[in-house]
Design a protein that fits this description.
About 35% of the residues lie in helices and about 20% in strands. The protein contains 12 helices and 12 strands. The protein is globular, with a radius of gyration of 18 Å.
Length: about 325
């Protein structure tokens, strides 16, 4: 089979970086048409820079990187330097990128690519707030029917929230955008906190990254060393969850994940539960299913895949 064509929409973030590295390490499985940056974990000037840093770390400077929206559709930007550090990639010391940022706006690239490629052959992989994807859908509604699948990291049900008591960060930052995406009609697969909080970088798993002995392996180990301090203190867990690589791993090895095709609605009107993904896990409403909401992961298989692929870079 030919590689699956993808656009990675991202706000790097250490876990975004690992997701991008996994994709770049898997050219037989994934063809990255472009990487589009959005404001989220840190502001846009850092996310587009970080995306290019990661491509150069992987030895893939030919990758096309585009800058997109610098703020949510209808709200002020909320960022997460308290988790990811002031650069978004705190931990390793990585050089500034020399590869160019593309002149085209990310939203225009998304629209143009979906119109140019054969219908149903391009998968969108949002790893951050859904602003770029939603703006593209609002500007060019015709692209919704051309999307093969949207595989995103965001939301939560049983794990509730990580930025508020009710909301996961990516959805909370731009709930209006999430509402557009979840109602667009394209096939959607969701990697919520319910899954990603089971993908924990334990000491042994991080040692396996470090033992690769490569610049990529060492950088990934140093990234997770940095941001695990926040999650271990917050949750009392044995390590930090690797949220975003779940998206890439699903595209490569979907049998690592299990979930249900259910209805997911986005709360955008309540101060108390703003950004909540109201997931009808138990089928108690008559609302039509609109997303495959993952609930579990084979964590050992996930880390085996991740370590093996990172070792290729």
């Amino acid at each position: 089979m030919s590689p699956r064509k993808i656009i990675i929409d991202t706000d790097p973030g250490q876990d975004d970086a690992v997701a991008i590295l996994l994709a770049l390490a898997s050219p037989d499985d994934l063809e990255i048409l472009g990487i589009t940056a959005v404001a989220g974990n840190v502001p846009l000037p850092l996310t587009e820079k970080n995306a290019r840093i990661v491509c150069e770390l992987a030895g893939k400077p030919e990758t096309l990187v585009f800058a997109g929206c610098d703020a949510p559709i209808a709200r002020k930007l909320v960022t997460a330097e308290h988790v990811h550090g002031k650069t978004g990639l705190d931990g390793p010391t990585l050089p500034d990128p020399t590869m160019p940022l593309q002149d085209q706006h990310a939203v225009d690239f998304i629209i143009e690519t979906l119109r140019a490629e054969e219908e149903g052959t391009v998968t969108l992989c949002p790893l951050g707030p859904l602003t770029n994807i939603a703006v593209a859908l609002k500007r060019a509604p015709d692209i919704a029917d051309r999307i093969q699948e949207i595989v995103l990291m965001g939301g939560a049900y049983f794990e509730v929230g990580n930025i508020t008591p009710a909301a996961e960060f990516n959805i909370y930052v731009d709930p209006e955008a999430a509402k557009v995406v979840f109602s667009c009609g394209a096939p959607i697969t969701v990697m919520p906190l319910d899954v990603t909080h089971k993908a924990l970088v334990t000491k042994d798993r991080n040692n396996a990254f470090r033992a690769l002995g490569t610049p990529v392996g060492l950088a990934v180990a140093e990234m997770t060393d940095f941001f695990e301090r926040f999650d271990k203190e917050k949750y009392g867990s044995t390590g930090a969850p690797l949220h975003d690589p779940c998206v890439t791993a699903y595209l490569i090895q979907p049998d690592l994940f299990t979930g249900r095709h259910i209805n997911v609605e986005i709360e955008s009107g309540s101060d108390l539960t703003l950004g909540m993904t109201v997931a009808d896990w138990w089928g108690v409403t008559d609302r039509a299913p609109n997303a495959t909401f993952m609930g579990d992961i084979n964590a050992d298989g996930f880390f085996a895949l991740l370590t093996e692929r990172l070792g290729r870079l």
